[in-house]
Amino acid sequence: MDPITSMESAAPQRRPHSMADPAERRNEIIVTARTLYEDKGMAKTSIQDITATMGVARSLFYHYFADKDAVTSAVLDTYVADYLEALHYWNANRRVGDIDHALTSLVRLLRVALFEHNAFREAIASQENAALYLDFINRIADQTAEYFLQSTVRDYESLHEVHIEHRYETFYMLILGIIGYLRTHPIVDDQVIVDLIAQTLHMDRTPTPTQETD
């Protein structure tokens, strides 16, 4: 048996929609909607497009989502989840005590994760979808603030004093400000954003000596 035939026979067979797990069905609708949004734009994608692409009746869509706005909100959730996954990776790969490296790589992450171009991102950033865009960046600000407080800030606090009050609120407002500024000033140098973050958070950017091990 050749490798391709072997792979095809070993691949799991896709179950009919009637047999699929409800969570899988719902996720397939979201994935299909996201793909269509990214390919052709949100305004040009209808519920009929989503169900036709899946090869199912419209009734299946309405079993899981009340309308297009509901599935769009779920699609936004997937973008937030992708962003948080990237944030976890960034945090896991920080250099202990190297504040400038951490901030520089964070700014690069924000640029890619939040401003990578596709039809859907352009649609939610348009004036006609202002409410949707505001919802999206508010979710990002909330999740980022919560994540930092539970991880990065604790690591920083083990080496430095934290000179800010109202920590969640400070991070929330800072993230909103960075997103807004990068959106309107896309060619700003990364170092400017790094400096603004460090100044706002009163961070000690003096390199922390690494301890040598025998």
Give an overview in words.
Residues 1-14 have low confidence and may be disordered. The chain is 68% helix and 0% strand. The protein has helices at residues 3-10, 22-40, 47-54, 58-64, 68-92, 99-115, 119-124, 130-150, 152-157, 167-184, 190-200. Helix 2 packs across helix 3, helix 2 crosses helix 5 and helix 5 (68-92) packs antiparallel against helix 6 (99-115).
- Series of secondary-structure elements, N-terminal to C-terminal: HHHHHHHHHHH
Largest sheet: none
Low-confidence stretches: 1-14
Quote the beta fraction. Answer: under 5%
Structural class label: mainly alpha
Cα shape: elongated
SS elements, strand count: 0
Rounded to the nearest angstrom, the radius of gyration is 22 Å
**In which range does the helix fraction lie?**
55-70%
Number of helices: 11
Distance between the termini: 54 Å
Average pLDDT rating:
84
Please outline the helices and strands.
Blueprint: H1 3-10, H2 22-40, H3 47-54, H4 58-64, H5 68-92, H6 99-115, H7 119-124, H8 130-150, H9 152-157, H10 167-184, H11 190-200
Helix pairs in contact: 2-3, 2-5, 5-6, 5-8, 6-11, 8-10
What's the short version?
This protein is mostly helical. It has helices spanning 3-10, 22-40, 47-54, 58-64, 68-92, 99-115, 119-124, 130-150, 152-157, 167-184, 190-200.
Q: What are the key terms here?
A:
single chain, 214 residues, mainly alpha, elongated
